[in-house]
Design brief:
Helix content: 25-40%
Radius of gyration: 20 Å
Largest sheet: 12 strands, mixed
Number of strands: 12
Bound molecules: coenzyme A
Structural class: alpha+beta
CATH architecture of the largest domain: 3-Layer(aba) Sandwich
CATH superfamily of the largest domain: Gcn5-related N-acetyltransferase (GNAT)
Distance between the termini: 33 Å
Strand content: 25-35%
Number of domains: 2
Number of helices: 10
Shape: globular
CATH class of the largest domain: Alpha Beta
């Protein structure tokens, strides 16, 4: 049986086949066909590289090696992500896809590439390390089981954080109160994002990307919360819907403006989001945080998030 490789751009491939590989590797992966389409559509709109080496066996896609630019990274740093269906692993496809993805990145001007695997996948870690990737950072995936989250015990925490007149409101309310809410929220998001601990500087996400990716299809206007001090937006937490799991919430960014930290605002935002999620019938909230982000990990631990596995971030200088 011969393996055939082809390079696809944007959505020029069968997205279902690629999602099926991701799910065969990790059944609880939140990836979806609609997510891939959103990402690729937005990359195309922004004129950023977003391509995928696919390996076929008898016309069936059994592996994929993604290479793309990112709205958060400088153009000389690109993302690579390789996956091979478990039934087709140990045939050299992973190494081959990684090499092709790196070559494509270099041809498009990349000087560094960044990739991820998790600590439960020693083979993937070995492939990356043998190819010259070095561990750069680790993130913890953790989950709050809403079945064990007691909504009645948190009112004091919320009251203390909002005692000075601070309000926690949803995007649904913000958008009614303030005509320029999208730009104001983008400003807050960008300020917070600049403070997320990373091993390399993140670029400010352009407004168009913010609108497409953060305020896009998976936005929940009554669950996305903003902390307001008077007319100032000072904190936010961003729960998103998960396409193929109606019971779960993915909690993406949580952050507080630097001059408002240490007053319990992040805790109050996350607790209010958990109360909202439980009342809406969701059963769990999943989030990811860098191991170096002590304040965020402390907030999560206090609320009852439990750590699952670590995702390892790898970097290679080409
Ligand atoms: C993480 C962040 C949201 C916390 O906001 P905050 O409003 O200051 O958080 P709170 O005041 O509610 O709680 C902070 C907790 O961290 C603890 N903490 C602060 N610094 C810490 C440290 N270096 N080590 C351990 N715990 C620490 C505090 O003691 C407090 O816990 P406690 O309430 O049990 O005492 C804020 O630092 C931030 O916006 N960072 C940048 C954005 C970011 O990294 N977001 C996470 C990625 S999504």
């Amino acid at each position: 049986m011969t393996a055939e490789f082809r390079l696809a751009f944007y959505n020029d491939f069968d997205l279902d086949e690629v999602v099926a590989i991701a799910r065969a590797i990790r059944p609880d992966d939140f990836i979806s066909v609609a997510d891939l389409r959103d990402w690729n559509d937005n990359q195309q709109r922004a004129g950023r590289l977003s391509s995928r080496w696919l390996v076929h066996h008898d016309d069936v896609v059994v592996g994929s090696g993604y290479v793309g630019e990112s709205p958060w990274l400088e153009r000389t740093m690109m993302i690579v992500h390789v996956m091979v269906h478990p039934e087709y692993q140990r045939r050299g496809h992973g190494r081959d896809l990684l090499e092709r993805a790196e070559t494509t990145a270099a041809e498009h001007g990349a000087e560094r590439v960044i990739g991820w695997t998790d600590e439960t996948r020693p083979r993937a870690m070995r492939i990356l390390e043998r190819a010259g990737f070095r561990e750069n950072d680790r993130e913890w995936q953790s989950t709050l089981d809403l079945g064990c989250f007691d909504v009645t015990t948190w009112q004091d925490t919320i009251d203390r954080a909002t005692a000075s007149g601070m309000r926690i409101i949803s995007l649904a309310v913000l958008s009614e109160e303030r005509p320029d809410w999208k730009r104001e929220l983008h400003r807050l998001y960008a300020d917070i994002e600049a403070d997320v601990p990373t091993q390399f500087p993140l670029m400010e996400m352009p407004f168009d990307d913010f609108e497409a990716l953060i305020l896009g299809r998976r936005l929940v206007a009554d669950g996305f919360l903003v902390a307001m001090d008077g007319d100032q937006l000072v904190g936010l937490t961003e729960p998103q819907l998960v396409d193929d799991d109606p019971t779960a919430v993915a909690q993406e960014m949580t952050g507080v403006r630097s001059d408002y930290r240490g007053r319990g605002i992040a805790t109050a935002l996350k607790v209010t989001a958990a109360i909202w999620a439980k009342r809406r019938g969701f059963t769990s909230i999943r989030t990811d945080n860098a191991q170096s982000n002590a304040p965020m990990l402390a907030v999560n631990a206090r609320i009852g998030f439990e750590r699952d596995h670590a995702t390892i971030e790898y970097l290679k200088v080409l």
